[in-house]
Write a structure and sequence with these properties.
3 domains; 7-stranded antiparallel sheet; 5-stranded mixed sheet; 9 helices
Length: 484
């Protein structure tokens, strides 16, 4: 099934069906147990009535067993012989013996002279005493199910077994039954009603679930339809409708719109990046081509130094664009442990062509206090870009300070140039941004250095900020976390 509504309706129907079947079985078991207990109570009453008569020495053939069809009775002695049964009882099972024909008791042994004299003595000793009397057992009776055939009709019964003792001390067991027909009819009626109602209930559950799910998923269908239209039109300015509810669908719509907003912004940045990159590449390529064409026509006019400068600038720009592309693709920084002070000293020592000397101050409170984790090449690129920016704007001094701070290390690059206006301190980290649009491109660069520096800092878990440096100049601070 490809439809969520169909799967939801089927799942709800199956769950309800299982729940109803389990509840129905439990109800039938409870009903059967209650009705069986009632039948057992009736059988116990009938058995105790007969046992009471036996305790009073009522002859077996004169026992009153009530309605024989409702309460068949079988009486057995200690040896399991049947001594009495109710009228018209033709067959029985579930009482320990299936015999229904009373058997005469065994003949009493003849008394000898000694026995006669003993009996006379007993009679003399007991003269004037009350005759003996039997009793009925007060123990919980034994219960069991069985069948009985009364006057040709066979039925199921619940039997109760009660013991009684007559005046002669003979222990008899009375088995009396109560019919289970009412219990069977009631259980069958309830089962039939449940089976008849089950399909109707399941159809109602399936229908209601289908309608409720359809209504609940209607906003999802609207979102899907709008997303399909956005895909077809490639218009990322469109947004999906957001339901007024505060449920998961509304959160899905809001998240989708936020994703569309981020995607639109990313695409816009990419388009601007491609346009700016094309524009930046066009200038050195055109200059280089012009110089080569002039050189081809007039070799004596070839500006070799200018061609080399344009080639170097083109190479640097291509390297910057390649690094930005790798960063945008999610390239993860390395896990090498670096000593930031040593890295800064190494980068400064290699800058022999700077117009302003760079002063370096490294403050390490303890060994290893300036260690960071990351890519050596990328972090060296960040330091180089910050130094290039400072050299470009400084008047007479450039200083670098390296110190430990808040679980990491800081590289602060300060120059005494014109500084960065407070309103522009966020925009200067955007790609291809130059605050002085009037200056030459050769002097101002392509506007990628600070953008690359911030992207690398962010991917290393750090940050790059800019602030004023006193009365004039700018101070760029790179903070990187310590080793993890």
């Amino acid at each position: 099934m490809r439809s969520v509504r169909a799967r939801a309706a089927l799942g709800a129907t199956v769950v309800v069906a299982l729940a109803l079947v389990a509840a129905g079985l439990a109800a039938l078991l409870v009903l059967r147990a209650n009705l069986t207990d009632q039948a057992g109570l009736q059988a116990e009453v009938a058995a105790r009535e007969t046992a009471g008569q036996l305790a009073l020495d009522v002859p077996y053939d004169r026992l009153e067993t009530g309605d024989e069809e409702d309460h068949p009775v079988q009486v057995t002695d200690e040896d399991g012989r049947v001594v009495a049964v109710s009228k018209d009882l033709e067959a029985i099972s579930g009482t320990g013996t299936d015999r229904v024909t009373p058997q005469p008791p065994p003949a009493a042994p003849e008394k000898g002279d000694d026995d006669a004299d003993r009996d006379d003595d007993d009679d003399d000793d007991g003269a004037g005493a009350d005759p003996g009397r039997g009793e009925v057992s007060t123990d919980e009776p034994d219960f069991g199910n069985g069948t009985a055939t009364v006057d040709g009709d066979r039925a199921d019964y619940r039997f109760a077994s009660v013991e009684a003792t007559d005046s002669a001390g003979l222990t008899l067991t009375v088995h009396a039954g109560a019919p289970l027909a009412a219990e069977q009819r009631a259980v069958a009626s309830v089962r039939a009603a449940m089976l008849a109602a089950l399909p109707v209930v399941l159809l109602v559950v399936a229908g209601v679930t289908w309608l409720v799910t359809r209504r609940a998923l209607r906003p999802v269908e609207d979102i899907r339809r709008e997303m399909a239209a956005i895909t077809a039109s490639e218009d990322l300015s469109r947004r999906v409708p957001e339901p007024a509810s505060r449920d998961e669908v509304a959160r899905l719509a809001r998240t989708t719109n936020e994703t569309l907003t981020a995607l639109e912004s990313s695409v816009d940045r990419q388009r601007r990046f491609v346009a700016d990159a094309s524009h930046e590449l066009r200038s050195p390529i055109a200059s280089l081509r012009t110089q080569l064409e002039v050189g081809a026509a007039h070799p004596e006019l070839l500006d070799v130094q200018g061609a080399v400068a344009d080639t170097v600038r083109l190479q640097v720009l291509a390297a910057d664009l390649l690094l930005l592309a790798r960063l945008d693709a999610g390239e993860r920084p390395g896990n090498a442990r670096l000593e930031l002070g040593a890295l800064v000293r190494e980068e400064v020592s290699q800058r022999t062509g700077d117009r302003i000397p760079v002063a370096v101050v490294v403050s390490a409170p303890e060994p290893g206090g300036l260690e960071v984790t990351g890519s050596r090449g990328q972090l060296a690129r960040v330091i180089g870009n910050l130094l290039d920016n400072a050299q470009r704007h400084a008047v007479s001094s450039v200083a670098v300070e390296v110190r430990a701070e808040r679980g990491g290390a800081v590289v602060a690059v300060t120059d005494d140039g014109a500084g960065v206006p407070e309103a522009e301190r966020t925009r200067i980290f955007e790609r291809f941004v130059r605050l002085d649009d009037a200056r030459a491109r050769d002097d101002g660069g392509a506007g990628l250095g600070l953008a690359i520096a911030r992207d690398v800092a962010t991917r290393h878990g750090g940050r790059l900020t800019v602030a004023g440096a006193g009365e004039r100049g700018a101070r760029f601070e790179l903070w990187l976390p310590g080793p993890r």
